[in-house]
Amino acid sequence: MKKGKADPCNYLFRRARVIDPARDLDAVADVLVVDGILTDIKPNIDLPSDRLAHFAVIDASEKWIVPGLIDMHVHLREPGEEYKETIATGTMAAVAGGYTAVACMPNTKPVNDCAAVTEYILERAREQGHCRVLPVGAVSSGLEGRSLAEFGELKGSGAVAVTDDGRPVANSMLMRRALEYAKNFDLPVISHAEDPALSEGGLMNEGPTSTLLGLHGIPKAAEEVMVARDLALAELTGARLHIAHVSTAGAVRMIGEAKSRGVPVTAETAPHYFTLTDDRLMTFDTLYKVNPPIRGPADVEAIKRGLADGTIDAVATDHAPHSSIEKDTEFEYAANGIIGLESALPLILELVREKTLTPSQAVAKVSCNPARILGLPLGTLLLNQRACMTYLDPEFYFVLDCTTFRSKSRNCPFHGQPTRGRALMTFFNGKVAFSRLSK
Amino acid sequence: MPFKRKDLLGLRELDVHEIEHILELAVSLKEINARPIKKVPTLRGKTVIHLFYEPSTRTRTSFDIAAKRLSADTYSITTAASSMVKGETLLDTVKNLEAMKPDVFVLRHTVSGTPHRIARHTTASVINAGDGMHEHPSQALLDMMTMLEHKKKLDGLTVAILGDIAHSRVARSNIWGLRKMGAKVILCGPITLIPPEAHTMGVEVSHKLGEIIPEADVIMVLRLQKERQQQMLLPSLREYSIYYGLTAEKLKKARRNVLIMHPGPLNRGVEISPDVADGPHSVILDQVTNGVAVRMALLYLLGQK
Question: Which domain of life is it from (chain A)?
Fold first, then answer.
């Protein structure tokens, strides 16, 4: 493939498997990008040979073209903790992982609880970002759980949802009011479901492994008690509730039951919750320390079933970068969190290989579903718009090597793991935001 | 059989032969403590650093006496504060100390798993002198040595561990050690103080002290920490002592040769009544004596490399 810097963004992908679940499309087709515009998707695209010379023509057989992936739950750490990640490095990691939009949580320093911070994030994203950044505002001022943040102003300046993620909204009345008030502005409320009294002091999942290691456990009930409360409040208020990072079988069951009753709830999980079990902590490795904690085999199975039957709508990464200062320390003092932007895609594609999800279901979890939850017209391949899509090889074999990640942080428990499936090119806004193809 | 390990981090990873080897060696070294000149030159020129990130008098003194009786040079660094409070990470502290070329670190830390972490980062041997709620292997070894002295064997013994199992590293190390040596272990205490899914460690669990007393060859009483009441694990120390405190009255139903053990320090009148602690079945001070011998054995095995 030849493409000089001055060349326009002209690509012709031949015989790609195009998967766009929003349009119920899963077919082999040619995909044409002219000057960055996604011009055509159809079985055979013929261009006159003189025109063809201006195109990079890519044999895309056995590869997929999907809408630019959306990660609805990341931590970009800017402003405040730029030594862990910045909007520049986080979005670079995103496009390297195949994502073209990331929703960033408000627990920055300062907290994103007002227009000024939301606008700052969007401004930095415009200047330095490699993909779309979707700021999520706080539920409570300063994440302190005492009074509501200004949702109207947050939405007006570009916030797509509200959450106190990282901290539960412990006060049930505040959560009720948040749901009611967010409904006013048609903002989803994202729940970090954790009963802080039940999880207090906890360092890992409560069970045989925590007993054996002598580490304080966090019972599954800490999550489930809060899921039950928030479902009751969503039912009461009729407001849109989204449960973040679901980790337990009980939570999946309750969300499924609520959905079947018509409660306006959606849910996400993260790859580590359907890939890892808590026995990985046997070596006291702080890379596995995350909140909610990695649970047991029955939970992993329930999460997979929940993904397959649609109870869990989305897969987010909860990309939580930490430096060695926070991670390379005694277990109890180590920060919670796992980075995910550059390791998620192969782990999601593993669900396809093991036949838990169809390719279309898998793509939906990271494209149209998060877009629908956030109420955004994204996550689908739009013709005659600037290309926003991901070209990936679902069988690309490689060993996950976090030393090559674009993220500033290295807290990846999948480092060294052989895996398959990788983004080869990510188009954002009509440009190649990332490419693994040789120039 | 030579002891090939670099570190002693816990009893879960040791096999039966290794445990037997340590206990046999401890028995032979115990004799040194009875001599008028209680010192042998075995570890002359070796350096042992006691690194205690948690207050401890008994264990630290026991390790220190053990090291000195083997002629090692010892240094003690004690701090109640965590490394992070000091501003230097624990790893930095260990790296600095390692640059002074010690042979053995004896490490006590409030956080489970910390000795494992340190062991991966130093070429010196690491002996776990108690980590969080995880393991306290030298304590379990001295407990087993004491049982062996009085019962002649561990295989077939029924050992009841009574009290706050959930927070006890002593209990965990004893469970691993005793189970490997063929003993039956019964945990006894209120449900709030028994760790979740304790049966997965191969033990029986009871919540009724009266029922297990007649079955036990050994009753190991654990210290009840007073803060458990604030953590909503207990309504009061008074109620605990009524149901789970070991008294002479309750011991009337015990086997004739029952051994009463306690890792110390004791809360007299809470988990154990004074007449039991000082009574004819108590081997609590034998445990302390054997502690020096066991720690000499560990230092001998790890310090010679």
Answer: Bacteria
Whether residue A322 lies inside any domain: the answer is: yes
Q: Do the chains contact at B197 and A207, CB–CB below 8 Å?
A: yes
Considering the entire predicted model, what is its pTM? Answer: 0.94
Q: Which domain holds residue A271?
A: 68-374
CATH code assigned at A37: 2.30.40.10
Closest listed residue to residue B268, CA positions, set B224, B207, B227:
B224
Contact call for B197 and A213, based on CB within 8 A: no
Range(s) of the domain holding residue B214: 137-284
Which residue among A349, A374, A399 closes a domain? A374
Query: Do residues A61 and A84 both lie within one domain?
Result: no
pLDDT (tens digit per residue) in A22-32: 999 999 999 99
The candidate with the shortest Cα–Cα distance to A320, out of A410, A399, A406, A401, is A410
Write down the ipTM of this complex.
0.92
Phi and psi, residue A186, nearest 5°: 55, 40
Please name the member of B84, B117, B133 whose beta carbon is closest to the beta carbon of A214.
B133
Q: How many residues does chain A have?
A: 439
CB pairs below 8 Å between A and B: how many? Answer: 70
Contacts of B90 in chain A (CB under 8 A): 329-330
- In this structure, the number of other CB atoms found within 10 A of the CB of residue B252 comes to 9
Look at residue B40 and tell me if it is in a domain: yes
Region A366-379: mean pLDDT is: 98
Q: Do B197 and A216 touch (CB under 8 A)?
A: no
- Does residue B265 have a cis peptide bond before it, meaning omega lies within 30 degrees of 0? yes
Q: Which of A26, A318, A393, A401 is catalytic?
A: A318
The nearest alpha carbon in chain B to A208 belongs to B197
How many structural domains compose chain A? 2
Sign of CA dihedral A19, A25, A31, A34: negative
